[in-house]
Design goal:
heterotetramer, A mainly alpha (366), B mainly alpha (420), C alpha/beta (513), D alpha/beta (322), A: 366 residues, mainly alpha, 14 helices, B: 420 residues, two-stranded antiparallel sheet, 17 helices, 2 strands, 70% helix, 1% strand, binds adenosine-5'-triphosphate, binds magnesium ion
Chain lengths: 366, 420, 513, 322
Amino acid sequence: MKFSPRRLGLTLAAPLLAVVVAFVITSLVLVAVGDPVGQVWSTLLSEPRPRTLVNIINSGITYYIAAVAVAIGFKMKLFNIGVDGQYRIAAFAAALVAGQGWLPGVLNIVLAMVVAMFVGGFWAGIAGWLKVTRGVSEVISTIMLNTISAGLVGWGLRSWGTRAEGSNTRNTQEIPESSQLEGLPLIADAPNRVYTLLVLAIVVGIVYWFVINRTRFGFDVRATGESETAAVASGVKVPRMVLIAMIASGAVAGLISMPSFFGADHSYGLNFQEGVGFIGIGIALLGRNHPVGIAFAALLWSWLEKASDGLQLQAGVSPALVYIIQGVILLAVVIAYEVVARFERRLEQKQVTRQLDTATPEGAAA
Amino acid sequence: MSLSVGTEIETAPQRPARRVPFWAWPLALAALLVVLSVIRVVTGQSDIASSGTLGAALAWAMPLALAGLGGLWSERAGVINIGLEGMMILGTWGAAFGAIHGGPWMGVLGAILCGAVGGLVHALATVTFGVDHIVSGVALNIVALGVASYLAARFFGELEGGSDVQSPPLPSLPRVGIPGLGDALGSVEDKGWFFVSELAALLRAATTDLSILTVIALALIAGTWWLLWRTPFGLRVRSCGESPVAAETLGINVYVYKYIAVTASGGLAGLGGGFLAMVASNAYREDQTGGRGYIGLAAMIFGNWRPGGVLMGSGLFGYMDALQLRGGGSALHAMLLFIGVLLVAIGLWQILRRQAHVQGTVAIVVGIAVVVLWLISDSIPGEITRFAPHLTTLLVLAFASQRLRMPAANGKVYRRGEGH
Amino acid sequence: MSTTVTEPPSAAGPPAVEVEGITKRFPGVIANQDVTFAVTRGTVHAIVGENGAGKSTLMKMLYGVQRPDEGTIRINGETVSLHSPADAIKHGIGMVFQHFMLADNLTVAENVVLGAEKLHGIGAAARAEITRISDEYGLDIDPRDLVADLGVGARQRVEILKVLYRGARTIILDEPTAVLVPQEVEELFGNLRELKREGITVLFISHKLDEVLSVADRVTVIRRGTTVDTVLPQDVTARQLAELMVGTELPTPETEESTVTDRVVLSVDGVTLAGAGRNVLEDVTLDIRAGEVVGIAGVEGNGQAELVEVLMGMREPAAGRIALEGTDISDWDVRRIREAGVGYIPEDRHRQGLLLDAPLWENRMLGHQTQQPASRRGLLTQAAARADTERIVREYDVRTPGIDVTVGSLSGGNQQKLIIGREMSHAPKVLIASHPTRGVDVGAQAAIWDLIREARREGLAVLLISADLEELIGLSDTIRVILRGRITGEFDPDVVTSQELGSAMTGAGKDAS
Amino acid sequence: GGSDSGGDATSGEGSDIKACLAYDVGGRGDQSFNDSAARGLDQAKEELGVQIEEVEASQGENDAAREDRLNQLVDAGCTNIVGVGFIYAKAIGAAAKDNPETSFAIVDDASADSKADNVAQLVFAENEGSFLVGAAAALKSKSGKVGFIGGMDVPLINKFDAGFAAGAKAVDPKIQIQTKYLAEDGSGFADPAKGKTAAEGMYDKGADVIYHAAGGSGAGVFEAAKANNKMAIGVDSDQAKTAEKDVQDVIITSMVKNVNVAVFDYIKASVDGEQMSGLQEFDLKSGGVSYTTTGGKIDDITDQLDDYKQQIIDGKITVPTK
Ligand SMILES: Nc1ncnc2c1ncn2[C@@H]1O[C@H](COP(=O)(O)OP(=O)(O)OP(=O)(O)O)[C@@H](O)[C@H]1O
Ligand SMILES: Nc1ncnc2c1ncn2[C@@H]1O[C@H](COP(=O)(O)OP(=O)(O)OP(=O)(O)O)[C@@H](O)[C@H]1O
Ligand SMILES: [Mg+2]
Ligand SMILES: [Mg+2]
């Protein structure tokens, strides 16, 4: 697609519109329930400390990969609601393997990633297979698989996890020191570090962009998403694509936990971060399934989230306010995208006719 | 709408499922009771069909049934509603807020209203703005979680006995039952007679100590059937889900009916949330819904978008839930026998009647494996019993989804004047 | 054809419908401009005009589905403002749309009473009334049937019944004959005359002039959105009418001297396809030679679509063999078949031929993803694809401001030219063209016919499926008739008439040569 | 106690001690564990005049987020920070390393994760307290069947389970114990409906006393007990006082885990200038866990229970933890 200022303007219009709407609605809510509006915004909008900034980036990394996993499905109009379950079961399996430390250092990390992608892909593949062969909606099957994976992981953790001396939790074996990644000192003055596997997120983003936009496979994916019937007629084997897309989505979902696992957690335990898959859905929608859009959305999301502690401490407002802001932005943005897209389509149709009219004056209506 | 998959979308005409005659229902129920009796006798697990289990199953089924009924309203009008979970969440908050400030019946009203607001937002996004239904639903779930959580912190945090994540105890709704019947049936149940005791247990569960909200929910299921299939209003709602363009050309304001149906959908799901807050427990709690909106949706789908089916689907879920919570591993273990035998039967049927040798053989082999598993083990690990309902859903859908037919225009974005 | 109705319309009372100065604009299109005419009560009034002239738009405004930007509508002398079909229905207007407006999964009764529940409820009384109307007008409809089980003719009668049930005094029929075979058309006209006798006014849209002349009492011609004239059928010939419609002379497809060789390119042998209940294709056998156009005639739904799907590899035949230049391709998938040199112009370009929201150059790649200039070794070659799209736009006269606009914003004819250009660019050996000019304006239609003829000269084997019998007769070297999934006849287009084809298509005629 | 701290003297200015609590999701008001910690904080504010601050976690966060929260508390000027719940173990360990000047405490964890010179690990012998209520259950049971309902199958709750079983068996070796864990995740602590159904199942199968360690889900256990005219045992605080009025009379006793005492003691030590650190065990002996007699339902057996208590304190009985 050629660059055009109008197009860019329209692309940015929707998210900006949504953020403004979210700002207004949230303010109204605050006024309605009598919370301090000014203080809330000044707290939320104050510049984060370096340490918090690092944390924003770190959870942004996690969310980014989650959103890409979701976006792969979305590109084909597949709703992989099960990223959460795929991520969980993959994280557990990877932690189990990595904890054994069969391979030294970086190789161990690579092995864990391969295992995570395999397990995540397999888990998503079940839903894909059910859809293709049995016609079960992936929305329902992935939701069921989420619960099932939670159960299996719970059982696995009880069977293979260990309880450290004096601890009240259960964890998998901690990974050897040689496989622990120290992090990148990207932010000056911060005592903590950005996950080394920021690199992984960037690679995932680039590969995603490249495959979708520059390969034949990606074209098939997009074609299927835009019109299944046209894709079929063009030679795309949709069932096969569904299976592949689900597996790819699950494989990427499997990677979600990797940056934090090797950068901070070092083992899988009861304090595992839940719900990332659902956050990924929100971010993918917000970022319009675009690798760059998703990056901004992921940072926005995690920035809001990190602001919630300040909200409690400085404004005395429930941190749940942040959920409202996130939710309203999301709802506003999906509506705004629809409105803008419709507007754009009309504009283009008009333009086509106008240009043709001037080209062939006799073609105009009498 | 999500991808339909397959290359035969072009021409293969879908045979609509034939109506099940009304007498089939009691017959099926009786058959089920016989099966349960056999399992009880063979395994000695008295909890399989005790009135306690069935009563709990009924109670567990109701929130799911209400959510599923909500889904049915919405999807019959052509709007996929994956936002049921969010609407339920809003309902739990609304129930608590209403009940605290106006008594139990205000709680019921509050649940319905708050859920309906969620439905209205979904309608606004999908009907007016043409947002993809699943996208809107997912977004709504996120918003609802935030709104309920924030409002709870704001309105319950300060109250005596409440906190940011929990409301104070709510006043309870009346419970009803047919007096005297319970004890009589109970003594029959205790005799352990084949089938008779199971029947007594079922009657006992259905007639004693029910929450008034359970009765209302059952009435709503019947009422939905009557309203949607027996009144002009219902015909109009359904026409919006089958062919909104056709409805439009007959002078029907499709937007209005979609709005009504989706809002009602929210109200029903909200009431389901209210059930959780006021009947299943007696307070609002964050995360109380625990994904029941999704399960309700699943129950509706395998109930084939029909009220009776919703009841059946949610009943199955409720039963599995009740059984695993009450009996745990051993009761579910007994069910293995049932599942194994069922699989073998399905396999034989596939081979003998449908010539599907591969599927049939697979079913028989798996069935025998399940029976063997039943023989060699004596309990199922807790984690696995807890996802048994979900696994069951997945299996049921895998076996039955070809027989299901959703409303033809479900999930399609409709815009006035653009369909001709 | 049967007797033409010639008695002059009675002039009693104000006109049933009168429109004056109607203008309707769509983004970029003026669909109607200053349309003015009147319809006398109790007559059959035809509206003719070429594709895209604005006939449907006008009728939709009469029915309240759309609203005019300017102008007035009078019904029985009273100026009305129609905001929705409900208003129109209230004023006694009913409409049968070009595309049927029926909910497949509802029963006939439910479809009929929908929106008119106040009249007789939705129960037994309503069903009785439906049966009564059905009997009265000889519509032969059972209210308890599921619409999904009905054929095209019955569906149309249900549509008419819907209108009658509401007590409409003015009925609009938008191209009712498009999907009917001649015999069914006769039946329909019989029904219309019946209606007229009951004093009902019929507004009838068509661009089949012989039909119009046989049934109408008055004919209004619309050209490019404007009323050109209203004439009495006995005063004009079909030729004059056509010239009024087009403004110039009508182009007709004409077969040139035969280019048929004896080299069989595509050979279909005993192909059978199983469907729900019965076989949708049964023992279909035909050969297409290089330079030959084989036309398939048939009433919609008799297996044409399935035949195309089987040939394109979208469905696998249960029995039989399909060979492309001697190679068995029966079990190949779509992609392999396309790569082997089978071009495809789908029946429904919006559904099967294009990605409406993607730019022209991406649509250029569709269907040929695996081939140059779309991709190489799995990677897209965008620059090459763009350059080739520019070429197609130029060579095939696709009217577009550029190759970056979305294909959805082009007109149907231009979309179709892009598709044809795309398919021809890969030097196909076989072209499967399904309704290649459906919904395309006259200018583009002529251009498309030329393209097909040219390809045939160059040795292409063409399978042409069309509902337009003129087109079939004009382009084909041989015509096969398909009925209930079987090839039931073979005709020489040089000698066959539309009537004969129509008989064969309905199974009425046995005179297959 | 605490009268010697000079709390009154500093109440105008406020002490220069600022005690802060970081809760898990839910926070103050769960009528159980978190509330107990909050009571300790309130007591410290009142009696010692310390300044306080509270924050709670948000849903589904990771250790980094928890650590960041603790650091924000440090930034807000907190001198003493308590992580309420083992979920904070790693975060406390890390934050303590980064802020050697600040004093930390963690409830329910004694692992290497949270170990540091400036961290007090406040742990409880829940198994010992549970032993006593287990014995009480066995003594009160007429059917010889008792039940245990846990919110989640994790080591912490296993301790309650193990202690309860040991206590019941100590009284009656043939006693039947039904055990049920409600969920895989935190929802097991927040779903009274689950508690109720599980308890009804147990009562229907003959149990007449049920002990729950299921947080908020326990409300359902009490409801079931009330409806079936059976007995229940509360947990964490004296639930015969804190539970809803109409079910209080079914709660024969509660296994109290005095988190408030631990939190208060920890803060008080700082006020007194003797920073608490290292492993701090709150067991039967130190009064960190105990059983209650509110309502007088077990007045007849307190002698026997106190006897067991003494044996545990004396080390004659070792209560298992899993
Ligand atoms: N909803 C719409 N939006 C934009 N343009 C429209 C719309 N409806 C019709 N048009 C345009 O208005 C013109 C008239 O269309 P209309 O359907 O009335 O033609 P018609 O005479 O019925 O043609 P046909 O014989 O193909 O049915 C066409 O150019 C068409 O593309
Ligand atoms: N992006 C899009 N998505 C869906 N539909 C679209 C899109 N863009 C255009 N359309 C539809 O495609 C139609 C344009 O194709 P159509 O064949 O009707 O053109 P037309 O101008 O009517 O040509 P004709 O003269 O053949 O009738 C418009 O009616 C419009 O509703
Ligand atoms: Mg058109
Ligand atoms: Mg038309």
